[in-house]
Amino acid sequence: MRPSDIQFLEEYSSFHDRICILEERTSGKIFLSNECVRFWGFKGFDQGPDTFPAFLFHLHGKVRDYAGFTEKILLKHIQDSEYFDTLFTEGHILRFFWKTVSNQEDSAYRLYTFEILAKEGDCGNFSPESPVVESIFYKLPEPAFLFDPSTLRFLAVNDAAIHLYGFSKEEFSDMNLLEIRPEEDRTDMETVIQNFAKETGIRSRGIWRHWRKDKKILYVKITANRIPLGNSFAVLTILTNVSETIETSYTLKQIRAEKQSIIESMSDRYFSLSKDWRFISANRQSLSTLGKPKEQLIGRKIWDLYPESSVRIFRDKFESAVRTQKPTTFEYKIVETGNVMEFRVYPFEEGISVFFQDITEKEKEIPNRTFSKKSL
């Protein structure tokens, strides 16, 4: 690391006293704080990790759900300027986050920080109002709550959950888990949740329907862990709101279904191709002209299914539509039958849509027309 980088570290308040990593974004090189070296056990290493992915590799076996934790970072959020997550080690609950910082030369750096929320054994003797509970819940970036598995009553709820559900802390204190579920989902739910609560360890509980105070439906992905609470147990639950993803997926499915229904009902023949010229869809009316069942078309490249000589005019027209991003219309005469087909090609972000119809009878009314004569 350059002298200016070292000076930047020295000026950055309490860097070495916290579990921190500074990364130079241009080169990818990292510098570990003294506390980071101690906490993660790098002391005594001849050579520590020199990049952030290499650092994550060293966490294998030290972090619960290592694969899920690293996948979210490296595959989904590595380009985000800020990020928050919660992770568990054998002895701690940690809040992990990063942010972008700069030195005086305006070089871009990213500061990764691990903040200890609770240590193993802290949960043995506390009430829901204790500072330990607050340190866990109120700092978590995701909604979380503790509940009693025998009664399903809420013991503690963090600020993120209050914001998500719209109930006050006082309202939550008088409620149980069934009351944040739609009424039609409550049948036998008490037994199901109590059975879940008997299992130890951090477990994913899938995606569930909840509702807010205003009765708006939420879809939440639940991760739960049974933890000691005084002389008994409680269940720590962390929730990820996936409503937008679920609703988007459902909407897209509806749109696709409606679009397919419209396409199938059209008198026009229709098919669509992806950017790499693979069939995405084709309606029933088009199959007789294409000469193949849908199962032999979808996913296959159009140029691999038909001889080059028979599709050259189509290739030229389709590629022109993609290149110019403008619709195009052309006519085509099938040599074997004498039928005249009109093709309308519409480019879109992922490929092209092609509509075509037999206009033979219409063209007979217009003498001395010239057509492309090809064999499909």
TrEMBL record:
- GO BP terms in the entry: regulation of DNA-templated transcription
User: Which PROSITE patterns does the entry link to?
Assistant: PAS (PS50112)
Q: Which domain of life is it from?
A: Bacteria
Pfam families per UniProt: PAS (PF00989), PAS_4 (PF08448)
Q: Which residues form the PAS domain?
A: 129-200, 255-325
Q: NCBIfam families in the record, alphabetically?
A: sensory_box
Mind telling me what this protein is named?
Answer: PAS domain S-box protein
- Organism, scientific name: Leptospira santarosai str. CBC1416
